[in-house]
Amino acid sequence: MNFRVFPACIVLLVATTASAATPVVEIEIRDHLFYPDVVEIPANTKVKLLIRNLDPTPEEFESYELNREKVIAGNSETVVFIGPLPAGEYPFFGEFFPKTAQGKVVAK
Amino acid sequence: MLSNAVILILQETLEAALLISVLAAVCYLHRFRFGWLCWGVVLGIALASLYASQLQVVSEWFDYVGQEVINASLQAAVSILLVVLYLVLPRSPGNRSTAIPHPANRGNRVSLLTAMAIVMLTITREGSEIVLYLGGLIRQGDHIEAVLIGSSLGFGIGLSIGVLMFYGLLGLPARWVVRVTSFLLALFSGNMLSQAAMQLIQADWLPASQPVWDSSDLVSEHTVMGQLLYALVGYEATPPAWYVAAYVTGFLGVAAAIALRRANREALV
Q: N or C: which end of chain B has fewer CB within 10 A?
């Protein structure tokens, strides 16, 4: 057994399982609205939210329940990691346009 | 649009205004001139504009978590600089009657630079959001008047609370003012380090965890009280473990620096 290869294998294994185990959920922002506005995710699992802002104006993805806040420049995309979350509802909103940009994450 | 602008600008302004007012009170007690404050504000606004203009580029760094990494760095730097400030501050007169703002100015250069850097970095992070928000709305071209009036109101309220805080602190009995300002800056240090931890959790650089407690029934972050407490002491209704650990570390960092000062002073006497 080549012991120098062994740690490298473990790193590779962990990296592969980590990336394979993190589901990606896409959200779009159009006309200051979230699509979809109800985002279903598996409970007790870390999820990668891929948020695409198709508006020319920046928006801030914010949620007190998820403890998340991130500015997304106009016409760009970004990533926000959430969870693992117990089953339940977690509202989020667009801080720059909160009257319309409202949504929630539902962990099942 | 108007009320949105008031709330958003107020939220962004308040945290910076409170920190700067406490810092200003400390420097007033040390008879420092306020020129450093102006430089910190000017440089902060310049850096905030630069950060806002490069947000999209920064965002894509480190596999789309560049923004979290930069914000966490800015916040951690403020927390560390608050500890440094208490290590380098010359001995406080601690007596308001002797603290005349204009004449004597023997504060050492390192304290002034540290205080300036704290102001600058705080404004860089909070200010960049304001620049992005206003820039986006102005480019869109709708409701510009309402947005500008709302923003001015929000900014004015935030600034007024900061000024009230400054005079409120200086109005305290002499033996209390040093204690209260030290305690508040220790809280700010904890607050900044815990927000940095939260950013790194969001970036998946620190492990997420279940909330250590849930006080959302007691004080919800959706309420005015929740928002005020957030700005003043970094209140979170559902804080993860790393948030609490970072908060305690930041607070104890400043507390340790103060204890060290006290020990040194007693050794000198």
A: C
Angle between helical axes of B66-88 and B55-64 (0-180°, round to 10): 100
**Interval B111-132: pLDDT, tens:** 899 999 999 999 999 999 999 9
List the single residue in A74, A79, A80 with the smallest CB-CB distance to B136.
A74
CA atoms of B37 and B163, how far apart (whole Å): 14
Q: How many domains does chain B have?
A: 1
Q: What is the pLDDT of residues B52-97, one digit of tens each?
A: 999 999 999 999 999 999 999 999 999 999 999 999 888 765 444 4
**Closest-CA residue to B65 (of A80, A46, A16, A20):** A80
Provide the 3-class DSSP secondary structure of residue A78.
strand
- CB-CB neighbors (< 8 A) of B135 in chain A: 58
Alpha carbon A33 to its chain's center:
16
Closest alpha carbon to B237 in A84, A104, A64, A44: A64
How far does the CA of residue A65 sit from the closest CA of chain B (Å)?
A: 7
> In this complex, is the C-beta atom of B19 within 8 Å of any C-beta atom belonging to chain A?
no
Per-residue model confidence (pLDDT) at position B80: 98
Domain of residue B50: give its range. 2-268
Contacts of B129 in chain A (CB under 8 A): 60, 71
Task: With CB atoms and an 8 Å threshold, state whether A81 touches B198.
Answer: no
Inspect the interface and report whether the beta carbons of B222 and A64 lie closer than 8 Å.
yes
Q: Does B147 touch chain A (CB under 8 A)?
A: no
